[in-house]
Structures are given as structure tokens and as C-alpha cells.
Write a structure and sequence with these properties.
Mean pLDDT: 76
Shape: globular
Number of helices: 28
Low-confidence stretches: 111-164, 376-382, 579-585, 635-645, 848-853
Structural class: alpha/beta
Helix content: 40-55%
Strand content: 5-15%
Largest sheet: 8 strands, mixed
């Protein structure tokens, strides 16, 4: 690992530092933290040493504004000031060693500059290297040097000679083009691709001083005006003899052919050239020597770019002799079209390359660090908060892999889609498989299952947090994680959980800062606007908003309650009764659901209901006149059901989403709904035909199959004995023979010795239901996993009510283990509870339960 960090440092100091910190999180040796502090102090990182030692980063955070200021003035400093002139005034800031390194680097740069000046003097105004013919592929050794191409890389204006050359990454982007190859130059926005285009044009003019005819194409008039201005200013200052002109849509009185013939460079919108080719004013693309396509990813379908290239390819493929121009495309991304996997993405890129007749995609590979220092492009989904969470998840996966190869339990989703429903499904599948993992060494089995349960549970929570961050506020995602870790600390908190909690605690100050400083989610701005507008127009509006998850429902309620202009809505939350996990996000009972609905229907207090899928079918909400689908899309049936919640006259339905695929899916649903409606009308207009077709289907159906389905009995239950083991640590809980069913729905244990194997905690919401009175929560004594409830029933005190999803069921004979989420699926038979079974032994208080046998 040390070698890997040192190797990374040669490429990126920041990445190497991140690797070092990541690995430090897993150190277990006694005294490593103090050793780390000592090294910081010895290396004279006194500010960082003091901040970490006191765990107070206020002074360092106050430097952020100064850092941003330095980033802004860096180009001017590096251009106009010599480091040696500054060092004398910074002796209190820099270490002697750092001063020496700066002076040595400056001396080296001066020597290199001197050598370059000599080279330029020998061949003024020339380029070294081979000058290939157009469309001739040459070796990398012939790549040119740029001794006299100088630009202001911020404005695109020419600089005075010798002040600054092309940046190294920009030279790299020109490499294929100056060798005469057709190429797509793909580099991020803001890196100076137009500057690269200017340099390529300048080199091309020098290669072919009498023959060069260059056209630079733009997609829009405003882009054309910007690029034309840059080309005009650059070449008028560089070489007034180079003739540059431009033409866009409102200048059709000019002759395109005349402009090309009498100028060296013509900047124009693409449709101008298409029109000239279609009218034969420009007879062929062969009168050009170089075409530069700005935003070349548009070269698809019926776009003017593709029209031009279709003519190009027709000429190339149908004529054995031609002199077609070199093609250079410029774009920030080649990710065109839709694709579901890497292969489809490749095919789309290949199609773009084929359309532009290029075999080369040019990107920055050798000078990435320099590129990053000038271009600060935010990556979608890679906000620092997201990057930290994803990094923690990656580390947890690695820890889990060291315990057991979880990849063998379930195939991981493509490209590790953290923060997605697919990842949630995968990790749930892994967790379920790990619960029934069996080994010869039972102690080892219990240890591994417990560790894997912890790892997968934490991965689920981090995945939830990413989803909340995507759709709500970063603050809500952090609150969700804080609540989870509070519960973890108050539960078993074993060695694995302590390690995972430390991993979170180490990053939490940074996460808190990001949550505090982060910008508002634009989707929330849109939602706020809709609600304010609707309630301004009608203060009696009743709203139901559908969301994907329970955690998001809670986050949205919190946001509305904390938003001054919306808190009057006092939203209620309606979620399902199921439980997602044993920690945050538990479900609602039918009585809770009924109370929330009644409050929304009959009370003026709550004007809004935030619901998951539990409310999209069957629940009657007659007063609702505004339905909001917040990143909530299903199939056609779900769409109709959700929209049907708005039953008041004049009701409206909005989809709020930033996901293009989700929006497209909803449009498809709307189209399919119309198809269904039309099909119904058609069938209703032909009742006899409808009847005959139904009869035909009946005859086609296999009657024997129907009979078999209708007569199939319930899955038989065995009378054999089974053990119920804790699904987290595999400790024995009880025997299936001791379980009784009360009122056909509740499962109690008569064996009082079970209380020796569990512990209890106060219940947050003690209440009565169906003759039961909840008293306490029942937890595994070993790992504090939630086992169910302690309750009284009628006159009987202290009964254990079980939750089947908290246990693994093991056959006492075969030792096979299975996991079930519903009692109806268990393989063993259970007797109905009979009051005659109650004896003085079963009524004994739990603190006097007999010792286990």
C-alpha cells in the first residue's frame, strides 16, 4: 500500500493524500494516532497538528476565502511575478526547505526557457517536426512543438510574443490534428477548446500556405458570433495577412463560395454550408482543406452537421480519387444517445466516430493534473458530500470482502450504482443470503454472519442517505445518518460497529460543513414554487405528494415544516406498515394510517399528505385537488392510480423530476394510457366480438391447469421441530414447538427460558391492541438485535411476541437454515393458543425464569 500511495503521489498529491487518510481509518495498532500527530509536528505542519489535536478546525476553515482569492489571482501571479521576488517577504510562512525547492525550480525553468529561445532564434516563426499531407497518419514522434503560438488562455486574445505558450494539456489535444488525422477532441468545458482550434488552424495554414481553406462551424448564431470574434482578434494581431471572415443566417446576401475563395478562414453556422451545398453554390467539400465542428456531438440524425458529413462520406465511398478536407470535432462529451451498459455506450461513440469519419478520439491523458488545476468542472453526482459517502461505502465493501466474498452471494449491480434502487435491491439480497450462511465451525459462522449483517446494514443506510441527498437536502441525509448511528451506539455496539462508527465520525465534521454550506436542491425550489402558486390561487387546496421511500417522506416533511412560506401546510406522512430494517424508518400500523387520513380529510390543520405507494391505490381521498409525483413514476396502472387520487373538480397532477429517463417513462405511460382507452372503446363498440374472444381465450386456456390451481392446497406444514436463531448473530432464541398463534395473527412463546436469552428496552410508543398491551422491546442479549415485543395479554403478563424477520429458521434434523419475512411461509405447523396451557410456570415473572437446560 505504501508503494501504491507513493506511486499515486507522482501523478496527484491530492489523490495520494486521500489514499493515505482512507487507509489510516483502518489502523488498529496502539498509539498510531499520537504517532501521526508527532510526524505532523516534526514535519512543521503545525497548523494541521494543532487543529487535529484539539479537534478544532475553525482557523483552517477561515483560510478558505484566502484560498479562493489565490485561485483567482494565480494566472496573474504566475505570469507577471518571479517566485524569488516573493520568497523574501514570506520567510514566516514558508520553511527553508520549501524556499530552496522553489528557487531550484525557478532556476530550472530559466534554463529551459533559455534553450527554447535559442531554438526559436534559429528558425523564427517555424514549427519543428514533420509536416504531413492532409489525411496522412504519421508517427507520434512527428508531433509539433509550439514555440511561437501564444494566447491569453482566459480570454482567448493573443498575448505579446514569448509571454505564454499553449498549456501542455492543450498541446496534447492538438497532437492528432496537427498530424493530419481526422479526430474528435473531447475535453471539459472551460479548458480552452477554441484556443486549441486556433492553434490547429494556425499550424494548418503554415503547413499549406497556398492551399489552406478552413471552415469553422458553429451550431447557433450566438456561438458563431463569439467564435468569429475570437478568430478575428487572434489572427488580426498574429498575422494581418491571414484573411478571416464570418457568415450566419441573416447574411444570406453574401456568396459562400466567394467568401471561401477569397479568405483563409470562414466562421459560419452549419446551415449556411448545408444550403450552399444543396444549391450547388459550393460544388463540393473538396474545395476545403480543414473543417472544424464545434459541439460535434450533434453530428447525428438530421442535424446540419450530419448532412454535411453524409455528403463527405458519399464522396469518399463512391470516388476512388478525391481530396476531401481534414475533419476535427470539438466537444465536451461524446456520450450521445441512450445506453444501458458499457457496450451500448461504446456503440454510440463508434457511431459518432463513423459519422465524422474519424478513427481517433483525443483526450487529455498525460497532463490531467494541469487540466484539473485550470478547469473546475463539477461532476454530476460527485459533490464532495456524495464523494465522501461513496468512498465510505467502497471501504465498507472492502471490509466485508475481507470477512467473506459477498460477491458470491449475489451478482453486484453494473458499475456499483451507489444511491440507486438497484444497489438497494442488491445489498438486501446479499444480506438475506448472509443470514443463512452455514459453516462447519459454528462459532466462526456466528462471527462472520454478525459482521456481514453489520456491513450490509450500514451500506443500506448510506445508500438511503445518497437517495435522500439526491431528492431532498444534504442536511436531511446527514440527519438520517446521525439518527442511525445514535441507534447503533445504543444497541450492541460490538467491535465491527465501533469500527464502522469511527469511520463515520472521522468524516462527520466535513459532512456537517458540506451540509451547512450546500446550496438548495433545485427540485425543492421547483416544488416550493408550485405549492406557493397553488395555495395563493386557492387557499383551500388539498395536496397529496407521492415519494419513493419512507426516509424521503420524513425528509420532505421536515423541509416543509422548516420552510417559512410552507409550514402552514402542516403535512401528514402516510407510509406502509412493513419494516425496512430494525433501525430508522419503521412503518405505520393500520390505526396510525387511519388517523393520518382522517386528519387530512376532516381537519383544516393538515392541508397536505406526503405518501409512499401505500396511498396510490384504494385509499379514498375525495377532497384532494393537487397531486404531486416527486421523482415517483411507475407503470401505466400506477400512473392512473396516482393521478386518480386527485378527485376534486379542477384537480391537477404534476411530475417533479430531474431524471430524463423518469420523465420519458411517464410520457410513455401517458401514451399507453391513451392506447388502453382507445382499445376499451373499440371493444365496447363490438360487444358480440368481445364475448366471442373471451370465449376463445377460455377454450384456449388449459382446463386441467385451471383445475389444478383452484384445487391446490396450502403448502403443507411439517410437525417437525425447528430452532429459531437470531438473524444477526445466530444465537439460539426458541423452539418452534413453543410458539402459539393468538387470534390467527400474533405469535407468542410459552417457554419462559427465552427471557434468559434476551434483554429489553423501553418502548417509545406503548399502547394496547387486540387484547395485547405493548410494554417493552425485546432484544437479543448477545447482539441487541430487535427480536420483537414484551407484552401482556388479557391477564397474562410478560409474553414474548416474535417478529419472524428477526430470526433464521433451522431444521433440527437436516440443519438447513432458511429466512422468512412472513409467518405464513414458515415450514412448521403452529398450534392455536389455548388458555388451558397457562400454568403457574408460564405465569412466572420473567426475572425468575428457570435456568436453561
Amino acid at each position: 500500500m505504501v508503494e501504491s500511495i507513493l506511486s499515486t503521489e507522482m501523478k496527484s498529491v491530492t489523490a495520494a493524500a486521500q489514499m493515505l487518510l482512507d487507509q489510516m481509518c483502518y489502523l488498529e495498532e496502539v498509539g498510531w494516532f499520537q504517532a501521526f500527530l508527532d510526524i505532523l509536528l516534526a514535519s512543521e505542519y503545525t497548523g494541521l497538528h494543532d487543529a487535529i489535536k484539539e479537534w478544532n478546525f475553525q482557523e483552517l476553515e477561515q483560510l478558505n476565502e484566502h484560498r479562493r482569492f489565490l485561485e483567482r489571482i494565480e494566472p496573474s501571479i504566475t505570469k507577471h511575478l518571479k517566485p524569488s521576488e516573493l520568497i523574501a517577504h514570506m520567510s514566516g510562512c514558508l520553511k527553508p526547505r520549501e524556499c530552496e525547492e522553489i528557487q531550484a525550480a525557478e532556476t530550472e525553468d530559466m534554463l529551459m526557457s533559455s534553450n527554447n529561445s535559442t531554438s526559436v532564434a534559429e528558425e523564427p516563426g517555424s514549427f519543428t517536426g514533420t509536416q504531413p499531407n492532409i489525411n496522412t497518419i504519421t508517427s507520434p514522434e512527428s508531433a509539433c512543438v509550439w514555440p511561437d503560438v501564444t494566447f491569453d488562455l482566459c480570454t482567448g486574445k493573443p498575448e505579446r510574443s514569448g509571454e505564454r505558450k499553449l498549456r501542455e494539456y492543450q498541446k496534447e489535444l492538438t497532437a492528432a490534428a496537427v498530424q493530419g488525422q481526422n479526430t474528435i477532441i473531447c475535453a471539459p468545458t472551460g479548458c480552452g477548446k477554441t484556443i486549441v482550434a486556433l492553434a490547429i488552424s494556425e499550424y494548418h495554414l503554415k503547413q499549406f500556405p497556398e492551399k489552406a481553406k478552413i471552415v469553422f462551424l458553429a451550431t447557433k448564431v450566438d456561438v458563431y458570433e463569439q467564435q468569429y470574434k475570437l478568430f478575428k482578434e487572434h489572427f488580426s494581431s498574429k498575422d494581418p495577412n491571414i484573411r478571416v471572415t464570418g457568415m450566419c443566417g441573416d447574411m444570406d446576401y453574401l456568396s459562400v463560395r466567394w467568401l471561401i475563395e477569397h479568405h483563409d478562414i470562414v466562421v459560419m453556422t452549419a446551415q449556411i454550408l448545408v444550403n450552399a451545398l444543396q444549391s450547388a453554390e459550393v460544388p463540393s467539400l473538396e474545395i476545403l482543406s480543414l473543417i472544424l465542428f464545434d459541439e460535434c456531438h450533434n453530428t447525428t440524425g438530421k442535424h446540419p452537421y450530419n448532412n454535411i458529413m453524409t455528403r463527405y462520406l458519399d464522396t469518399k465511398l463512391t470516388s476512388s480519387t478525391h481530396s476531401l478536407p481534414q475533419i476535427v470535432g470539438l466537444t465536451a462529451s461524446v456520450g450521445i444517445g441512450s445506453f444501458k451498459n458499457g457496450l451500448e455506450a461504446e456503440n454510440n461513440i463508434l457511431q459518432l466516430c463513423a459519422n465524422l469519419d474519424t478513427r481517433v478520439i483525443t483526450t487529455v491523458t498525460e497532463h490531467k493534473d494541469e487540466l484539473k488545476s485550470y478547469v473546475h468542472t463539477p461532476e454530476k453526482g460527485h459533490h464532495p458530500f456524495i464523494r465522501i459517502i461513496k468512498n465510505i461505502m467502497s471501504n465498507i465493501e472492502q471490509l466485508a470482502q475481507k470477512t467473506f466474498n459477498i460477491g458470491t452471494q449475489s451478482t453486484p449491480p453494473y458499475n456499483r450504482e451507489y444511491g440507486s434502487q438497484k444497489y438497494e435491491q442488491w445489498i438486501v439480497s446479499v444480506q438475506k443470503s448472509c443470514k443463512v450462511l452455514q459453516m462447519k465451525n459454528k462459532d466462526e459462522e456466528r462471527r462472520i454472519c454478525r459482521e456481514l449483517y453489520n456491513y450490509t446494514e450500514h451500506l443500506r443506510k448510506y445508500n438511503d442517505a445518497l437517495i435522500i441527498n439526491e431528492d431532498a437536502r444534504t442536511k436531511d441525509a446527514l440527519d438520517y445518518l446521525d439518527a442511525f448511528f445514535d441507534q447503533v451506539r445504543n444497541a450492541g455496539f460490538d467491535e465491527t460497529e465501533r469500527k464502522l462508527t469511527a469511520l463515520y465520525d472521522c468524516q462527520r465534521p466535513q459532512l456537517l460543513r458540506l451540509a451547512t454550506e450546500g446550496e438548495q436542491n433545485p427540485k425543492l425550489d421547483e416544488l416550493k414554487f408550485i405549492l406557493e402558486e397553488e395555495y395563493h390561487n386557492n387557499d383551500q387546496t388539498r395536496t397529496v405528494m407521492f415519494v419513493k421511500t419512507r426516509a424521503l417522506a420524513d425528509a420532505m416533511k421536515k423541509w416543509i415544516d422548516e420552510t417559512d412560506s410552507l409550514k402552514f401546510l402542516k403535512p401528514g406522512v402516510l407510509i406502509g406498515k412493513g419494516r425496512k430494517s430494525n433501525f430508522t424508518g419503521s412503518g405505520m400500523t393500520p390505526n396510525n394510517q387511519k388517523g393520518i387520513l382522517e386528519s387530512f380529510k376532516s381537519s383544516d390543520q393538515s392541508k397536505m399528505l406526503i405518501a409512499t405507494s401505500v396511498a396510490d391505490e384504494g385509499i379514498d381521498i375525495p377532497q384532494c385537488n393537487l397531486v404531486l409525483m416527486y421523482e415517483y413514476v411507475g407503470n401505466v396502472v400506477k400512473m392512473v392510480q396516482v393521478r386518480g387520487r386527485g378527485r376534486a373538480e379542477g384537480s391537477r397532477c404534476f411530475l417533479i423530476s430531474s431524471n430524463k429517463e423518469r420523465i420519458a417513462k411517464e410520457k410513455i405511460n401517458m401514451f399507453k394510457e391513451k392506447m388502453v382507452e382507445e382499445a376499451i372503446v373499440q371493444l365496447q363498440s363490438r360487444p358480440a366480438d368481445l364475448s366471442n374472444k373471451v370465449l376463445h381465450f377460455h377454450r384456449m386456456e388449459d382446463k386441467a391447469r385451471r383445475d389444478h390451481i383452484s384445487s391446490s392446497p396450502e403448502k403443507p406444514k411439517t410437525q417437525g421441530s425447528y430452532e429459531l436463531l437470531c438473524s444477526k448473530c445466530k444465537k439460539f432464541a426458541c423452539m418452534s414447538d413453543d410458539i402459539r398463534v393468538v387470534q390467527g395473527a400474533h405469535h407468542i412463546v410459552l417457554d419462559r427460558s427465552m427471557f434468559k436469552r434476551c434483554t429489553t428496552a423501553p418502548h417509545k410508543n406503548p399502547r394496547a391492541f387486540s387484547g395485547f398491551c405493548k410494554k417493552e422491546k425485546m432484544l437479543c442479549a448477545e447482539c441487541k438485535h430487535d427480536w420483537g415485543l414484551i407484552a401482556s395479554y388479557l391477564t397474562i403478563q410478560d409474553l414474548a411476541l416474535l417478529k419472524i424477520e428477526s430470526y433464521v429458521v433451522q431444521n433440527c434434523v437436516t440443519r438447513r437454515q432458511d429466512y422468512f419475512r412472513k409467518w405464513r411461509d414458515v415450514p412448521f405447523a403452529m398450534r392455536e393458543f389455548d388458555m388451558t396451557e397457562i400454568t403457574p410456570e408460564t405465569c412466572r415473572p420473567r426475572d425468575t425464569a428457570p435456568d436453561e437446560v
